[in-house]
Amino acid sequence: MKTQGEIEAAVSEGVSRFEQEYMGRGPKDIRVYLIGDFLVVRLQGVLTAAEQHLVKSLPSDKGRDLLKQVRIHLIETARPIMETMIQEITGVKVVSLHHDISTLTGEEVILFTLAGSPLFRELKKGGGSASHQTLNVEKPWIYKTSGESDS
Predict the structure, then answer these.
(1) Residue pLDDT, tens place only, 64-92
(2) pLDDT digits (tens, 9 = 90+) for 92-147
(3) DSSP class of 53
(4) What is the C-alpha to C-alpha distance for residues 64 and 88, in angstroms, rounded to an integer?
(5) Which CATH number is associated with domain 4-120?
(6) How far apart are the C-alpha atoms of 60 and 116, rounded to whole Å?
(7) How far apart are alpha carbons 80 and 118 in whole angstroms?
């Protein structure tokens, strides 16, 4: 069983490879966050030179809308590939996929809603059993395992 970090790293690698092979360019930076049954993928620097030129050469709304339409179509066409990849990595079925891209910053966000929280092992010495962990919103670096108290 994988750790949460191993799941996030595998998703990062898979999405990066997908972007390179399917979109023609990989991201300059990619971050993946597994939060309960949400998987958030944040990619930066994804616009190709042609896309950047298109956005700059057309009136702002027209260039932005055209680029977003093309990207949405590409993502929707590749949706089965991405959902299969995420399910194989997390062991949980993908319920929905949401996507947006900024033509100003070149940032792309993909949100996967999963059928449940993936099981993962903790990084404690001496082993550990599978558990669900929740993110502490006030202190995002602190995770609480099911059954632990807030004290």
Answers:
(1) 899 899 989 999 999 999 999 999 999 99
(2) 999 999 999 998 899 999 999 999 999 998 877 654 444 444 444 444 444 444 44
(3) H
(4) 33
(5) 3.30.980
(6) 40
(7) 19
> For the chain, what is the radius of gyration of the CA atoms?
18
25: its two tokens: 């360019």
- So what's the pLDDT on residue 54? 85
Own/partner pairs, 48-55, CB within 8 angstroms, 24+ separation: 48/23, 48/24, 51/103, 52/106, 55/103
Token code pair at residue 76: 């929707």
List b or e across 75-103, with b for residues whose CB sees 16 or more CB atoms inside 10 angstroms.
Answer: beebeeebbebbbebbebebeebebebeb
Contact between residue 41 and residue 69 where contact means Cβ atoms under 8 Å apart: no
Q: Quote helix, strand, coil % in the chain, to nearest 5.
A: 40, 25, 35
Helix intervals (H) in the chain: 4-18, 49-57, 60-90
